[in-house]
């Protein structure tokens, strides 16, 4: 069955780097950008050029180094931001300017202290100016998640008429429920004139832990680009995690979608970003957490040893993880102990295995995990007794 391509727009270096304490220097940004290109993302959002001379220089350097991916720079709907971004992107083979403005009543009235009509006019002017520099212009309607759909559709329509090629519909505060976000994308797909000339994009934040679910609801309803970050890094509770949406699309062929991401590079990319940003990945993080393919309870271990698929929906090799691991704790059974002993070269018959298991349980009750060093001692002790 032919599947439709979902563009992966990585914003680790822009939205991701907004995390307090995760500042990257230019060299580190270049390393991450190179890795993202190797990973196969379609768009690298390299930064917000007007925000600082350092960010300008980093965006310019990434633009110059990147061969295949589109390189994108963020701007507000402000003339100087757009001119500076265009300048930073001068050497990009595929430059994109990402400009936009808040569209929810909260943003219009409380943040911008203006009117909807003024927001509409500023959006159009920003897209037109960006279009005078680059062909590929993405427009974001900040806080689209809480923007009334009719007004949002008017803004999107005007942005397309002004030349926008991509319409980003951010759930800036991570407020939407998946069915609401999916319905919003469908409403836009069905009601915005000229939508066939533009790509709808999801940009979901994780304040309620729904960023991944919302992004998938978006692409199930017509969006064809997902904005995301490695390890889900980003302000507050973060952004949609790239590794999660990519693997959901891959593991669910029924969605009829695909991405170009080389999934075997997910684990090393996660480790690289975690290291350079000094941001630990939680052990139980989906796809790339240290425990994502670790089994410690006896029932699960017995199943996985007999047939990996009993308790794993992804082959760890597909995401570049070392292998499934059988972690020995006080919840582990004989099968797991025998399996790990065999990997270390000890083939114990039943009586010896039973004795080893009794000693193992005593040890396991005293410590968090029984490691290979403990197992060598245990096996030798049992052999000496036998
Ligand atoms: O979350 C958001 O609304 C954003 C925009 C600036 C695209 O990051
Ligand atoms: Zn964001």
Structure report:
Helix content is 44%, strand content 14%. It has 386 residues and is of the alpha/beta class. It is elongated. The mean pLDDT is 96. Helix 5 (116-131) packs parallel to helix 6 (149-161) and helix 6 (149-161) packs across helix 7 (178-191). The relative contact order is 0.10. It contains 14 helices and twelve strands. Strand 4, helix 3 (79-88) and strand 5 (95-102) form a beta-alpha-beta unit. Strands 2-3-4-5-6-7-8-9 form an eight-stranded parallel barrel, surrounded by nine helices. A two-stranded parallel sheet has the order 1-10. The protein starts with a strand and ends with a helix. The structure holds 3-methyl-2-oxobutanoic acid (KIV) and zinc ion (ZN). 3-methyl-2-oxobutanoic acid binds next to strand 6 and strand 7.
Number of helices: 14
Distance between the termini: 60 Å
Ligands in the model, by name, code or SMILES, are: 3-methyl-2-oxobutanoic acid, zinc ion
Overall pLDDT level: 96
Radius of gyration: 25 Å
Residue runs with pLDDT of under 50 for 5 or more positions: none
> What percentage of amino acids are in beta strands?
5-15%
Q: Tell me, briefly, the overall form.
A: elongated
Give the beta-strand count.
Answer: 12
Structural class comes to: alpha/beta
Strand/helix succession? EEHEHEHEHHEHEHEHEHEHEHEHHH
Specify the oligomeric state: single chain
Percent helix range: 40-55%
Main sheet: strands, sense, barrel:
8 strands, parallel, barrel
Spatial order of the strands forming the largest sheet: 2-3-4-5-6-7-8-9
């Amino acid at each position: 069955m032919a599947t439709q391509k979902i563009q992966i727009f990585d914003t680790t270096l822009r939205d991701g780097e907004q995390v307090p304490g995760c500042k990257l220097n230019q060299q580190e940004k270049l390393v991450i950008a190179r890795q993202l290109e190797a990973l196969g993302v379609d768009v690298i959002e390299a930064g917000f050029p007007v925000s600082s001379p350092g960010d300008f220089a980093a965006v310019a350097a990434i633009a110059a180094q990147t061969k295949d991916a589109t390189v994108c720079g963020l701007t507000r709907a402000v003339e100087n931001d757009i001119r500076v971004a265009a300048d930073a992107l001068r050497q990009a083979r595929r430059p994109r300017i990402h400009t936009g403005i808040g569209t929810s009543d909260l943003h219009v009235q409380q943040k911008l202290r203006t009117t909807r009509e003024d927001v509409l006019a500023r959006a159009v002017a920003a897209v037109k100016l960006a279009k005078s520099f680059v062909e590929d212009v993405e427009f974001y309607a900040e806080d689209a998640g809480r923007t009334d759909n009719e007004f949002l559709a008017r803004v999107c329509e005007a942005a397309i008429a002004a030349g926008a090629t991509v319409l980003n519909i951010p759930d800036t505060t991570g407020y939407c429920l998946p069915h609401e976000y999916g319905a919003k994308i469908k409403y836009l797909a069905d009601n915005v004139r000229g939508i066939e000339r533009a790509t709808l994009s999801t940009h979901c934040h994780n304040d309620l832990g729904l960023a991944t679910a919302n992004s998938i609801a978006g692409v199930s309803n017509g969006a064809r680009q997902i904005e995301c970050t490695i390890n889900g890094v980003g302000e507050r509770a973060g952004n949609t995690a790239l590794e999660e949406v990519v693997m959901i699309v891959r593991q669910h062929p029924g969605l009829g979608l695909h991405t170009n991401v080389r999934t075997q590079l997910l684990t090393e990319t996660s480790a690289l970003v975690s290291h350079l940003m000094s941001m630990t990945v939680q052990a139980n993080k989906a796809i790339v957490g240290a425990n994502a393919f670790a089994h410690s309870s006896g029932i699960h271990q017995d199943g996985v040893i007999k047939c990996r698929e009993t308790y794993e929906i992804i082959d760890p090799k597909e995401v570049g993880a070392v292998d499934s691991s059988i972690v020995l704790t006080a919840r582990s059974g004989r099968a797991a102990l025998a399996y790990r002993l065999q990997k270390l070269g000890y083939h114990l018959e039943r009586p010896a295995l039973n004795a080893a298991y009794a000693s193992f349980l005593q040890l396991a009750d005293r410590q968090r995990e029984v490691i290979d060093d403990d197992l060598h001692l245990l096996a030798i002790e049992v052999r000496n007794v036998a």
